[in-house]
Design brief:
Blueprint (H helix, E strand, L loop, with lengths): L7 H14 L11 E7 L7 E9 L2 E10 L9 E6 L4
Antiparallel strand pairs: 1-2, 1-4, 2-3
């Protein structure tokens, strides 16, 4: 059964787009960490939180948290947790 939330490939693409907007080329992405939260409607879960980290030249999902409670507006969307410049 397919998931009704954002998948890893979509999260990776959004993270790469955000890094490009910050003027960072792919050679500088290692160490970047992102979080994406979303609320769902009509499914088994009320919300999902996914986190990913760039390790070398690969993205790794480091957290997938499906919740029965909805997220507050402040936790919805993409957030850069750690910049590769940090």
């Amino acid at each position: 059964m397919p998931c009704d939330h954002l998948g890893p490939e979509e999260l990776f693409a959004m993270a790469e787009e955000a890094l490009r907007r910050h003027g960072l080329g792919a050679e500088r992405w290692s160490g970047a960490k992102f979080r994406h939260g979303e609320n769902l409607d009509g499914g088994m879960w009320a919300s999902v939180v996914m986190e990913a980290e760039r390790r070398g030249d690969q993205w790794i999902v480091t957290r997938l948290d499906r919740r029965k409670e909805r997220l507050p507006e402040s936790e919805i969307g993409l957030t850069m947790l750690t910049s590769p410049e940090s």
